Inverse folding.
């Protein structure tokens, strides 16, 4: 098991708002080219490469991924999930490949509208299927924490597992912290 801790934060408002603008905005975006190896602009630790994609990069990734597109299209109370809740994303790859990936992160933001003290609202634990060596995978990190306060996904920790999973994969669990 290899870990990569990233002190990175991301709010994904614009990526889902492009869907609200209709096909004309989306039709101007070209699919991402095939990635090169080793990845440029990624944080590397051991065999793991990781990067928080920009909104533009995520739109390109989503244009090539039915899974990411479906996740971003989910609605809660009639609102796109990442327009309602704090979301993030991480693109990962491994020199040797992984049987499955685990991502742990925190949701942080101002305590409330009056008190701007940064606090941790909860944690997200996301699991997903593996990748072959040198194959990129983008993983969405979705909380159940309202986005209105300006929360961010932070302290992203990526784990590449080489042993078979003993749990259900493709999970995204948000656990609020009592403050």
């Amino acid at each position: 098991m290899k870990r990569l801790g990233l002190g990175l934060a991301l709010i994904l408002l614009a990526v889902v708002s492009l869907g609200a603008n209709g096909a004309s905005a989306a039709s101007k975006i070209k699919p991402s080219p095939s990635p090169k190896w080793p990845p440029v602009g990624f944080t590397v630790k051991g065999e793991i490469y990781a990067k928080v994609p920009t909104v533009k990069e995520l739109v390109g990734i989503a244009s090539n991924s039915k899974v990411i597109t479906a996740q971003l299209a989910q609605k809660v109370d009639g609102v796109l999930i990442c327009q309602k809740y704090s979301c993030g994303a991480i693109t990962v790859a491994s020199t040797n490949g992984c049987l499955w990936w685990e991502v742990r992160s925190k949701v942080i933001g101002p305590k409330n509208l009056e008190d701007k003290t940064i606090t941790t609202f909860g944690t997200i634990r996301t699991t997903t299927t593996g990748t072959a060596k040198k194959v990129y995978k983008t993983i969405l990190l979705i909380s159940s924490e309202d986005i209105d306060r300006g929360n961010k996904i932070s302290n992203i920790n990526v784990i590449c597992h080489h042993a078979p999973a003993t749990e259900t994969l493709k999970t995204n669990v948000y656990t609020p912290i009592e403050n």
Summary: Helices lie at 14-20, 23-27, 55-63, 66-73, 81-84. The two ends are 32 Å apart (CA to CA).
